[in-house]
Amino acid sequence: MSDIREKICALQKYMDSRIIGQKELIKKLMITLLADGHVLLEGAPGLAKTKAIKTLSECIQANYNRIQFTPDLLPSDITGSDIYIAEKGEFEFRKGPVFANLVLADEINRAPAKVQSALLEAMAERQVSVGGRQYRLPELFMVLATQNPIEQEGTYNLPEAQLDRFLMYIKIDQPDVETERKILKLVRAEQIGGKEKDSAWLEFVNKVGKISIEDVLAARREVLSMHVSESMEEYLVQLIVATRHPEKYDSSLKDRILYGASPRATIALDKCAKINAWLEGRDFVTPEDIHAVVYDILRHRIILSFEAQADGMTTDDVITLLLKLVPLP
Predict the structure, then answer these.
(1) Residue 54's pLDDT is what?
(2) Which CATH number is 3-173+186-217's, of 3.30.420.40, 3.40.50.300, 3.40.50.11780, 3.40.50.1820?
């Protein structure tokens, strides 16, 4: 195992000890970080969505900002704006909270489209335009946006084209009984001892120290060397094409899918499968690596017909069916 892979795996192990019962979430946050992407996280309140990104920021030598999205939020509250400086007699740009390495966009669907687009433009272009000038965002720039699936009043759904800007769309559910007990014990221990007496934190710091931005960038470069066989590449492409022409595999799906995944999904699936294999300690991609990330890559990139939705079908159901229909290499 390379030194940089060992550091990233140590970070993942520490986060697993802090965010109980969310191993898949932590792993996919690692994948998103190394893939230079952004993630949309959906789950009920109290499932450690905010804690996950805060814990990640504590372990990386990077800047972290949280933006609480509300209906009265303005685009300038995110990007920043030109402020008139009386002493100088000129305007000066004051950076907004989006100018950070890790940005938590909490309850992104509570703000109107104009505010959402201001953030998503920064995600896509990695820059902010104010007053005819462009301001570059940091090289390490990751947005974790959350949304609450329970409440619908006073929310603004993200358009499909904007959803496509997110590398992954992750859904998390309530923990089971045993996990609930572990969470309770962890919180009690934190309240009594604090981080200074946290054995997992001390082990991580003594072994690795904090992860630097250069470490993350080096890991991204190392992932590029992962091997993908021709048969595996063909399988990946056929999965994506199957979302556009599902009737080739099952005629009943012809009128179920309005739009399939774009080439952006192909690129994302390839990159994330490589990173999953890298985190697992392999130097090559297997079908299991593709299956590990395919739901999070595709669930927001497939648009179902009204008939499919009326029958209670979800995009996850479609992905499950396509995985059965498309032959393995």
Answers:
(1) 87
(2) 3.40.50.300
